[in-house]
Amino acid sequence: MAAIQVVRSEWTKIRSVASTVWTLSIAVVVTLALGMLISALSKSEFDNLSRNERLSFDPTFISFAGMTLGQLAMIVFGVLVVSNEYSTGMIRTSLAAVPQRGTFLFSKIAVATGLALVVGMVTSFATFVLGQAMLGSHRASISDQGVLRAVIGGGLYMTLIAVFSMGVAAMLRSPMLSLGILMPFFFLISNILGNVPATRKVGRFLPDQAGSRIMQVVTPVDDDTPYGPWGGLGIMLLWVLAALVGGYAVLKRRDA
Amino acid sequence: MIEAVGLTKRYGDKTAVYNLSFQVRPGAVTGFLGPNGSGKSTTMRMILGLDNPTAGQVTIGGYPYRKLPNAPRQVGALLDAKAVHGGRHARNHLLSLAQLSGIPARRVDEVLGVVGLQDVAKKRSKGFSLGMGQRLGIAAALLGDPQVLLFDEPVNGLDPEGILWVRNLMKSLAAEGRTVFVSSHLMSEMALTADHLIVIGRGQLLSDMSVKDFISANSADFARVRTPDTEPQLREKLSSALTGAGGHVLPEQDGALRVTGLPLPRISDIAHDTDVRLWELSPHQASLEEAYMRMTQGAVDYRSTIDQKAGLMEPLPPGAQPPMPVPGQGQPGWYAPPPPQQGGQPFAMPQGQPGLPPAGPYGAPAGPGAAPAGQPNPYAQPAPQGAAPARPTAAPAQPSAPAAAPTKSEDAR
Amino acid sequence: MIELEGLTKRYGEKVAVNNLTFTVRRGIVTGFLGPNGAGKSTTMRMVLGLDRPTAGDVRIDGRHYDHLHDPLKYIGALLDAKAMHGGRSAFNHLLCLAQSNGIPKSRVHEVLDTVGLTAVAKKKAKGFSLGMGQRLGIAGALLGDPRILMFDEPVNGLDPEGIHWMRNLMKSLAAQGRTVFVSSHLMSEMALTADHLVVIGQGRLLADTSMADFIEQNSRSYVRIRTPQRERLLDVLHGAGTTVVERGNGTLEADGGKAELIGELAARHQIVLHELSPQQASLEEAFMRLTAESVEYHAHSETPPAGPWGAEWRRS
Question: CA angle, B292 as apex, B291 and B294 as ends, to 5°?
Fold first, then answer.
C-alpha cells in the first residue's frame, strides 16, 4: 500500500465534501473581518491610551485579533475532517480499503494539514495587510524586525490549532463531543485561566496562549512570560504531538 | 376498507400517481407491489393524509383520513421505522403517542409485549437495530387497536424469526376482520402472506386481483420431469416424444425437464409408451416473482444491470461446463426482454450482447480505456510472487482473456 | 478463500463469537445465516480486520487482512449501505476508495454502470434511497475486481428487479470461480442463491453444510404420489418397507422415500403414476428448527388482543 495512493484518496475525500469549503471560508472571512474591525477601532482609540499602553502597542498583533474567532472555524474544520468518518460510518469502508491504520490516519492528517497551512498562511498575510491598512499611520511594515516572523507564525498557529483538533477528534471520535470540549476550552476556559491571576501561570502553557506568542512583535511592558515566540510555538507543538499520539493510539487499539 | 378513486398526484411536471382507483377490503391481507419509484409510498402517504392528492380522493371507511373521527384508533401505520426520536425510550415513545389519542398506558405495555420489546422498553431507541426499530414501529401501528393497518416494508431488517412473526401477525390481523394493506419488495414473502394484490407501475394501476389469479394470469404452470440419471438417452427420447405430442420442453439446471402444454397424466402416458421410467413428475406453478417481473417489466425506473464486467470476465474454472440456460431459475433471459427504452438495457439481462465485444478496459479489446495490445493491463492484479493462491488461473489467463471473452459464454449465465 | 480458525470475540462478559472454525470456498455462493445477535456482523467485521479477535485467526487467501497489499483487489465487501459520507457524491465516494488502492478512475465509471447508478453518479449519497445506497455499496465491493466478495444483507431495500439482479450477480461471480460469502435474513432468497450454508447461533457454529443436506437434515421430506392404481402401488410400497400416508383426493405421501426408487418400483410393476413429486420443507422451516433455542428477541405469538381495555376506552 503506497502511502501516496492513500494521500490522493484523502485529497479526494476532503475536496468532495461541502463542510471543508464552509469551515475554511468562514475561518478566512471571520479572521479578516474581525481583524479589520479591531484594527480600525484601535486606530481611533490610540490617542486615548496611556503611556504604558502606547509603549505596548503592537500593530501586528492587533491585526491578528480576528483569529480568536477565526480559530474556532479551524477547530471545526479539524474536528469534522476526522470525526466525519465515524459519524457517517465511512470509517469501516475506509479501514477496509486501508487496513494500515497509521497510514490511514496520518495520510488524512497530512492532507488536511497541508490544506490548513495554505489557508492559514493566506489568511495570516491577508489579515496583516488589511489590518495595517486600517491602522493608517500607526501601522507596522512587513520589513520591521519580527513582523515577518509574526505573520508566518500566524499561519502556523492556525494550522496547528486545526491539527490539534484532528488529534483530539481521533481520540474522541464523536464530532459533538469533540466540539463540545474544544470550543468552550479555547473560547472560554483558556481566557478565564489566562485572566485570573492565580491561574495565569498555568494558563499560558495552554496551546493557544503559548502558540499565539509568536504573533506578538512588541513585548508588553510588564511581561514575565518564561518563553519567547518560538518557545511558545514549541509548547504548542508538543500539545499537538500529544494529541496525535493519543489519536493514533486510540485508532490502533479500538475496534472500528 | 380503503377506497381510492381517481387518485392523482403531481409534483411539478412529474406525475407520481395517475388516476388510481382501487379498494382494499377488510378480512384479507392486500399486498401492494411495484418497482421503486412507481408511486407506492406516495399513495400510502396520501391514504394517511400526509400528502394532498392533486386530483381524486382516497377514503378510509368513507372518510378522508383528516376527517376521520379519532383517526389513531381506526388506522395504524408503519411507514418509516426510523421516524422515531432517537433519544427517547421505546416505552416513552409509545406512551407519548398513546397520550395523544387517549389510549391507556397499559396498552403500551401490551403492544411492547406483542412485538417482543418488553425487555428493552427502557432503552433509548437510537441504540436499536433496524429490526428492533421495525418492531417498535409495528408496536406503534398496533397501539390504537385499529381496524385498518398499513405497513410499508414491514420485514425490513428483521431476522427469520421476526419475518415469520410478522407474516403470522398480518394474517391473524386479517383473520380478525381487519383491513391489512402491506407493501413489500420481497415477492416470496408476499406470496406467503398476501391474499390479494394491487400492483402499480409508473403511478398507474397494473393489476388488482387475487394472488392466485395473478400468478396464473402472468405465467404458465409447468411440470418438472426427471428421468434416470444413469441413462441420459432416456431423457432425449422422452424429450422428443413430448415435443412430438405438442409439449414445450426446456432443460433445467439439474438435468430435469420443464414441460409446459401437457397435463401430468398425459406426460405419464407418453413416458409409459416410450418405455421411459420416471424419477420425478411434479406439478409446479411459477413463482410470484416471475409473474411480477413479467407484468412490471416495462415500468422499472432504476435499471441495474448489465455487468458489462469485461474485468469480471475470466475463463470458467477448469472442468466447468457453460451451463444451459434454465428458465425460471433466476437465469436472465427467461423473462422476455421488453422493447428497448431510452437509456435502459433490456430488462433483467445481466449479460453482454452476444456477438458484441464487451466494453471496458478490463482485458477487453474495444474498451475506451483499454491498453494497447501487448502493454500490460494497468489494472491487472499484480500477482505478488507466491502470494495469491486464489488466482492460479487468472494470472496466466489474463492475456488470452480478450480473445476468449466474446465467445466464451461466461456472460450467458 | 476465507479461513476462520477458532475465531472468538468477547465484549467484556458477553461472548459475541465463540470459537468459530470454518472455510468459505471459492466457486460457490456460501450463505451465512443466524438469528439477530448471533454474531454474523461481528464475524464479518473481523474478516475485514475492523474488529480484532479476542482469540483465533482469520485468513484471506492465507494472509491476514492487514497484510494484503491493496486489499480491495483481493476482497470486496458490502457491510453496511450507510457506511459512507452522505455529503459526498456517489462518484467521489468510489473514487476515493479506488485511489487508495491504486484502481484507475475508469473502473469507477464501470462499476457505477454495473449497478445502474450512472445517472445519479454526481448526486450526494444522502439523497439516496436505501436501495440506491445498497447499490452504491455493491459498486464499492466490485471496485477492485476482487476474487473474494462478502455481502451483508445485500438485497435490503432493493426492489424485485434489483433483488433478481443481485441474485444473478452473486451466482455469476461464483461461477467465475470467485468466493462469495453472503449473509441474509431472507430464507427464500438464500434458498435461491446459496450452494453452501454456514449457520451460527449465539456465536457458535451450528451447521456448515451444503444447502441440500441442510434442508434434508433439518426437516421432514416426503414424496407426493398420485396414481390411478392406488391399491397396487400401496401394496408394492408396503412390500418395499416404505411408510405411506394417505391424504385426501387420492394423494399418497411416502415418508423419507426417494422419488427415483419409487419411480423404478412403479415401472417394474407397470404402475402408472400421475404425479411423483419430492417435497421438501423450505429452508426457512429448516432454519427455524435448527436455531429455535438461539433467538434473542422473541415476539409473543399472540396477536394484539382486542381485549376488554379496548371496549372500555372505545366507549368513551
Answer: 70
pLDDT in tens, chain A (256 residues): 578 999 999 999 999 999 999 999 999 999 999 999 999 999 888 888 888 888 888 999 999 999 989 999 999 999 999 999 999 889 999 999 999 999 999 999 999 999 999 999 999 999 999 999 999 888 888 888 899 999 999 999 999 999 999 999 999 999 999 999 999 988 888 888 888 888 888 888 999 989 989 999 888 777 778 889 999 999 999 999 999 999 999 999 888 7
Cβ–Cβ of C50/A95 closer than 8 Å?
Answer: yes
Say if CB A179 and CB A186 are below 8 A apart: no
- Residue pair A160/A237 in contact (Cβ under 8 Å)? The answer is yes
- Residue C204 φ/ψ, nearest 5 degrees: -110, 150
> Which residue of chain C has the CA closest to B229?
C260
CA dist list (Å): B298 to A237, B191, B286, B338, B347: 64, 22, 20, 6, 8
Q: Can you tell me the distance from the alpha carbon of B304 to that of B309, in angstroms, rounded to the nearest whole number?
A: 13
Residue numbers in A near C101 (CB within 8 A): 1, 5, 97
| Three-state secondary structure of A185-198 | HHHHHHHHHHHCHH
pLDDT single digits (tens) B214-263: 887 777 678 889 888 888 888 888 888 998 888 888 888 788 898 888 88
In sequence order, the 6+-apart residues with CB closer than 8 A to the CB of A189 are none
Contacts of B314 in chain C (CB under 8 A): 176-177
Neighbours of A92 (CB within 10 A): 22
d(CA B151, CA C93): 33
Return the CATH superfamily for domain B218-288: YebC, transcriptional regulation domain (3.30.70.980)
For chain B, which chains pass the contact test of at least 3 CB pairs under 8 Å?
C
What does C29-46 look like in DSSP terms, one character per residue? EEEEE--TTSSHHHHHHH
> Domain for residue C235, yes or no?
yes
CB-defined contacts B:C, below 8 A? 280
**Domains of chain B by residue range:** 2-216, 218-288
Degrees to nearest 5, angle at CA C83 with C80 and C85: 155
Q: Is there a contact between A17 and C80 if contact means CB atoms under 8 Å apart?
A: no
| Chain center to CA of C46 | 19
Residue spans of the domains in chain A: they are: 2-253
Residue among B144, B292, B307, B159 at smallest CA distance from B214: B292
State which residues form the domain around C35: 2-216
Answer yes or no: do A97 and C89 touch at CB < 8 A. Answer: no
Output phi, psi for C8, to 5 deg. Answer: -140, 140
Phi, psi angles (nearest 5°) of residue B228: -55, 130
CB distance B379–C131 less than 8 Å? no
Rounded distance between C-alpha atoms, residue C121 and residue C112, angstroms: 7
Location of C-alpha cell 498562511: A121
> How far does chain C reach from its first CA to its final CA, in angstroms?
66
Q: What is d(CA C301, CA C199) in angstroms, rounded to the nearest whole number?
A: 24
Residue with cell 483487489: C73
We find that the CATH architecture of domain B2-216 is: 3-Layer(aba) Sandwich (3.40)
B129 touches C at CB < 8 Å:
yes
What's the pTM value of the predicted model, to 2 decimals?
0.76
Extract the C-alpha cell encoding C155.
438485497
- Interatomic CA distance for residues B111 and B145, integer angstroms: 9
> From the CA of C274, how many Å to the nearest CA of chain B?
5
Predicted interface score ipTM higher than 0.90: no
- Could you tell me the CATH number of the domain that includes residue C126? 3.40.50.300
Chain A residues touching C88 at Cβ < 8 A: 13, 16-17
The C-alpha atoms of residue C19 and residue C8 are separated, in whole angstroms, by 5
Cα–Cα distance measured from residue B141 to residue B72, given in angstroms and rounded to the nearest whole number: 9
Q: How confident is the model at residue B393 (pLDDT cuts 50, 70, 90)?
A: very low
